[in-house]
Amino acid sequence: MKVVLDTNVLASAVATRGLCADVLREVLVNHELVICKQITDELRRVLSTKFGVATWLINEFLRLIQQESITVKVRSVPEVGLTDKDDLGILAASIASGADFLVTGDKELQDLGHIERTTILAPRAFWEELTRGNMDPR
User: Fold this and answer.
1) Which residues are CB-neighbours of 92 under 8 A, at least 6 positions away?
2) In 3D, which of 138, 1, 53, 30 has the Cα closest to residue 10?
3) What is the pLDDT of residues 23-60, one digit of tens each?
4) What is the DSSP pairing of strand 114-115 with strand 118-121?
5) Which domains does the chain carry?
6) Which residue of 66, 86, 95, 96 is surrounded by the most CB atoms within 10 Å?
């Protein structure tokens, strides 16, 4: 199963212990993580400015993520009315990769529910689906 983890989920996974860290670990071990340049660029900025993570640690984390994921190149963005236009790139990565899920803390994205074949869920809802056994690994 292909899964896009939004920047807010990845940042929370790195900066705090808890649900997002569990989600990231589960996706890395049993599924295919999908990322794009926009996610890695935004993650670098958020970890540095909002969480104060050291540059060397950010670089190491990004190296690991890039090594363990599928990186898609976004060629076009969907025509979806969103307040945060940066989110269009993440939706585009989900579509381009054929991701099964986009996991995000962004309510506006969650409200979409789906984009093409990708289901959009909050981290808690995604985790509940995983732990119920409703999703097949790879």
Assistant:
1) 36, 74, 75, 76, 77, 78
2) 53
3) 999 999 999 999 999 999 999 999 999 999 999 999 99
4) antiparallel
5) 2-131 (3.40.50.1010)
6) 95
Residue 86's Cβ-side half-sphere holds a number of Cα atoms within 13 Å equal to 11
- At 48, list the tokens: 């540095």
> How far is 137 from 105, CA to CA, in rounded Å?
23
Count of C-beta atoms within a 10 Å radius of residue 131: 11
pTM: 0.89
d(CA 43, CA 134): 29
Model pLDDT, residue 138 = 40
Q: Residue 82, exposed/middle/buried by CB under 10 A (0-12, 13-18, 19+)?
A: middle
